[in-house]
Design brief:
The protein is α+β, with helices and mostly antiparallel strands and about 170 residues long. It has 5 helices and 6 strands; from the N terminus they run H-E-H-E-H-E-E-H-H-E-E. The strands form 2 sheets. Strands 3-4-6-5 form a 4-stranded antiparallel β-sheet. It has a two-stranded parallel sheet with strand order 1-2.
Length: about 170
C-alpha cells in the first residue's frame, strides 16, 4: 500500500517523467506484479515516461523499452531491452545475465562474476577491467568511451566482440 501511495503522490503533479527507484523491493511476487501492472497502465494511459531503477532483470524484461546497464557509476551498455536481454554485448552485462538462475536447468551452482565491486575508489582505465574475462593489456591504462556498435546499441568496451582467449 505504501508503494501505491508514493506513486499516487508522485503523479499528483502530472509529471512527464516518473522516476521509480526499486519500486518493487521487499514486496511479495503478487504485489510486485500489481505494482508493475500499475506502472505500465499509468505509462500508457498518461503518456508519461518511466525511469525504472532496479537490480531485478525480470522487471526490466517486463516493463522496459530501453535499458542502460551501469557498473561503478558508468553506463556500460545501452540498448533496446529485448536486444540487450537476448544478446548482451558488454562483458559485465553478459555476466549479469548469466548469473540469473534458470528454472529449466539443474545447475548446482549459480554463475558469478569474479572479484569485487570497487569500494569507492575506481580502478584506472576501464572500471570493469579487474573482473573482466576479456581484459587486455591496455584496459588498465585508458578509459573506454561509449561506442555505437550497432544502430541504437552502445557499449563501453572496445573488445566487446572478441572471443575469450587463453
Amino acid at each position: 500500500m505504501q508503494q501505491r501511495v508514493m506513486i499516487a503522490m508522485a503523479l499528483a503533479s502530472e509529471p512527464k517523467l516518473l522516476v521509480a527507484d526499486e519500486p518493487t523491493t521487499a514486496l511479495d511476487v503478487t504485489i510486485q506484479a500489481q505494482i508493475l501492472d500499475l506502472l505500465k497502465d499509468l505509462k500508457q494511459r498518461l503518456g508519461m515516461s518511466v525511469l525504472l531503477i532496479t537490480h531485478n532483470l525480470g522487471i526490466v524484461g517486463e516493463i522496459a523499452d530501453r535499458v542502460a546497464v551501469m557498473y561503478a557509476g558508468q553506463i556500460v551498455e545501452l540498448a533496446p531491452a529485448r536486444e540487450l536481454l537476448g544478446r548482451p554485448l558488454h562483458p559485465y552485462t553478459q555476466g549479469l545475465i548469466s548469473s540469473v538462475p534458470q528454472l529449466r536447468t539443474r545447475a548446482r551452482r549459480l554463475n558469478a562474476i569474479p572479484g569485487n565491486v570497487p569500494a569507492g575508489i575506481f580502478p584506472s582505465g576501464c572500471r570493469f577491467h579487474p573482473r573482466c574475462p576479456k581484459v587486455r593489456g591496455d584496459c588498465a591504462g585508458r578509459e573506454p568511451g561509449l561506442i555505437e556498435v550497432e544502430p541504437n546499441r552502445w557499449v563501453r568496451c572496445p573488445y566487446w566482440a572478441d572471443e575469450l582467449s587463453d
